[in-house]
Predict the 3D structure of the following.
Amino acid sequence: MVNIKIIGYMAAIVSTTLTGALGVFVRNISANGYIITFSRVGIGLIFLVLFLFLRNELHGIRKIKFSVSILTTGFFLSLVILCYTNAINNTSLANAAFLLYLGPIIAVGVAAITLKEKLTALNGVLLGLAFLGLLFLLEFQFSFNLEESRGYLWAVGSAICYGLFIVSNRKIPQNIPVLIRSFYQFLFAAIIMLPFLDGSLFHLTRSDMYWLIAIGFFQGFLAITLAILSLSYLKAIEYGTISYIEPLVASMIGFVLYSENLTLLQLIGCTIVFSCGMMQVLSTKK
């Protein structure tokens, strides 16, 4: 059990680290949120099918019976990506990340009610501290002017959908292989986005195409598949705590690539978030 948990934690850490760089990809693409969302899941699906082919596991797709849980996760996956992408384009990266990560807290509450997942005192303290660390990262400063209201609405929507995505994945039976459940979630998410694509799809620049392929591979195939893998092994509270690494990574990227200096308060926040994630992993060994 400990080894399985460690696999789940490692997958969650890599997944959230990759997703933490999403803002860099989104802000280098001139396409709208629908195209970016479709590309992340659609191109991600292509890479996943290729991977299944190389592993000679495509035949496993036909063996899985239709599941409402898998369809539901695909639906919420598309909405999380769409809402978060639009939030990034309409408000600051910090505010978008902060509101998105209300999602794990929502997931913990929903999972405790619907899945009867036990919330231990240690789990609750670590999640609370991780949330506090995130407030430190933002220096407890939030901008609520009317010009950013649209961005906040998108971000709140991404948080709600993210929480429901986490819980929905927990409902999928353990006997369904991770790559197969990923295939169907990518497929359903891409199908849901199809009706929203418009003529701007045919006016993408060469640079846009490169970035969209990259977002499909790194943010789609790798990040989402690893997130689904981790959710098959971890409880909502465990995944929720680790997921706070993502805004930490976003802050680090801003510091390294864009010379966005971190204040002492933000550095303390980074330390709290990282420490909580590591303590959650280490607590599994007890």
